Amino acid sequence: MVEIRTVTTLRKKRDDISATIRLYEKKLEQARADLAHVTAAIRIFIGTDRAQDIPRYYDSYRLFKRGEPWAICAAALANGPQTTKELARALVKAKGMDLGDAILAKAIGGRLIHSLRMQEKRGRVVRQGKRHGVSVWRLPPENTLI
Fold this sequence. Notes:
Blueprint: H1 5-46, H2 68-77, E1 82-83, H3 84-94, H4 102-121, E2 126-131, E3 134-138
Antiparallel strand pairs: 1-3, 2-3
């Protein structure tokens, strides 16, 4: 069966347009990736003090002043023994950050473990044991503070 020239021309045009659309979609994907990278670079260089502006992968060492985590933890431990997770939540709450952000709490908890162990070596905190696989901390009796 012989095909009409108009149909053949339209099919060729349709194929050309489809190929052009695929090319533009690839370019659009690349442009979106480039935009995401530039936006991430801007966030890195801006640096902000507002907790809600801090992306999840932000360096947690910049969130606290020197000695601030221990001061917050000592105040929380004055109410009685607490786990590392509870102390991390106290830090997040004290800085006005999102309490529901599990990633942030885990990052701060990881950093907090090191801080608490150093305070334990100095005799400022005592590890009381573990509760559900998490260390429990308490302040030492008053007469043993260094």
